[in-house]
Amino acid sequence: MIKRFIAVVLLAAFAAVFATLLFGYTPDTELNLTARYYAERTAADLGAANIVTAIVVTYRGLDTLGEVTVLFLAASIVGLVLAQDTHKTPRARVPVGELLTTGTRFLVPLILLLGVYVFVNGHLTPGGGFQGGAIIASGILLTLLADPLKHFGHGLISAIESVAGIFYVAIGLAGLLLAGGFLDNRILPLGNVGELFSAGAIPVIYSLIGLKVGAEFASILASLSDTEEL
Amino acid sequence: MSHLLPWLTGLLCFTMLVAAIVAIRDKSMPVAILAAGLVSLVASILFLILASPDVAMTEAAIGSGLTTFLLFFVLGRLRAGEHDGEQP
Amino acid sequence: MAHLAMATGFLLILIGAYGALTQRNLLRMIIAFTIADSGVNLVIVAVGYMRGRTAPIIDNAVSAAAAVQRIIDPVPQALVLTAIVIGVGVTALMLAYAYRLYAQKRSLDIRDFTELKG
Question: How many Cβ pairs within 8 Å bridge chains A and B?
Fold first, then answer.
């Protein structure tokens, strides 16, 4: 009772702060300095059509490297925490239904193709590595639903993840040696804005990020699926 | 179309708030998880109305798809704990 | 419209915080955290929105020369992209801990976990 009262008082204080922020907010009419810089210089300097992709991969690429590290840490900790609960006795086979099995066989290649398309075209259309990686993880999830006894090879997933991570950092260092700085995308030719082979190294970097993020989500799913039912 | 947009936004916001309250207060866990998935989905549509297609795609794939699946998966593994410790 | 989305985002944060503070079941607390996450992302994206402008992508509709007048602020979207992915990572971590706690004590009620109480 007292606890609920304190919670309500705390939330009322938060609500007062939020109300102050909300009523004091006037939307901008012109872009601020940083956004103006990005809007003017992206097409000319980097050759990318999607400005958000250019920011995430090149202008603020170090933050993305940090985020991929945090996701890797989360996947490792989930694997570590759940390692003691892997089921030892083989489970009974549950009949899954023909619709799901046949539908999975038809849909999973298409889903993987869609994921690869999304992250290869990340510099031209909305999309990119994170979305493509999540779509690939959904495809793997569908195979998990259709065949609950399937044991995922942790070896393959962690091999893909490690190789993608190493190449990501290697391309970043190549940018340091060959072009302006770490993760600079001008190590490959810029091309014309709007073509597939443009924007330098951005498609390559984003594809590697997409594979790494997809592999990490798949590793989380594999760790969870190996646990036994309580 | 554009004069309908504020009404559409208002309707979506109202749906999101009702779904959030259902997710907190409902007694049955699968309904609560589905309501949280609905909040994510409507947030993805709102991101599209706010002119952010990248964020809309990410929220739809990750927030509405993966999180809902993770919650259902763990709920399935913790069968008996479903009714523990609910609000009296 | 940005005000409406921002107000909804703030309300979602409050609802999520209320759920996390008052619920006893671990899974419900995790659901409340995901709702608060969605609220925060909504507020950040709503800050970047400008009336009458469109998405920050250069294509047939918005040419490179006219980009400064036609697009909204791209920086909040880059921030929220990162935030959503980390949010699902943290949710997966919380669920792994919930599973482990249940394996230890067979209960999801937080009143049963009193080892750290003084």
Answer: 46
Tell me whether residue B49 is in a domain: yes
Distance CA C22, CA C19 (A): 6
DSSP C54: B
- When scoring B3, B42, B78 by the number of chain C Cβ atoms within 10 A, the one with the most, hence best to mutate, is B78
ipTM for the predicted complex: 0.87
A52 and C13 within 8 Å at the Cβ level: the answer is no
Is residue A230 in a domain?
no
Helix, strand or coil for residue C71?
A: strand
Choose the closest CB to A230 out of C58, C82, C103. C103
Nearest to A127 among B57, B62, B77 (CB): B57
Rounded Cα distance, B75 and C112, in Å: 19
Which chains would you list as touching B if contact means 3+ CB atom pairs under 8 Å? Answer: A, C
Which chain B residues have a beta carbon less than 8 Å from that of C11?
A: 17, 20
SS3 A222: helix
Write down the number of H helices and E strands in chain A.
Answer: 8, 0
pTM as predicted = 0.90
In angstroms, the separation between the Cα of residue B2 and the nearest Cα of chain C is 10
Please indicate whether, in this complex, the C-beta atoms of B58 and A229 are within 8 angstroms of each other. no
Is there a domain that residue B65 lies in? yes
Residue C118 lies in a domain: no
Alpha-carbon separation of residue C50 from A51, A104, A215, C2 (angstroms): 16, 43, 36, 8
Q: Does residue C108 fall inside a structural domain?
A: yes
Dump pLDDT digits (tens) for A72-125: 999 999 989 888 766 666 666 677 788 888 888 899 999 999 988 998 888 888
The token pair that represents B78 in the structure block: 């913790």
Domains in chain A: how many in total? 1
Rounded distance between C-alpha atoms, residue A110 and residue B55, angstroms: 23
Structure tokens at A75: 């996947």
- Which residue shows structure tokens 């999801």? C108
Residue type, A219: S
- Inform me whether the C-beta atom of residue C59 falls under 8 Å from chain A C-beta atoms: yes
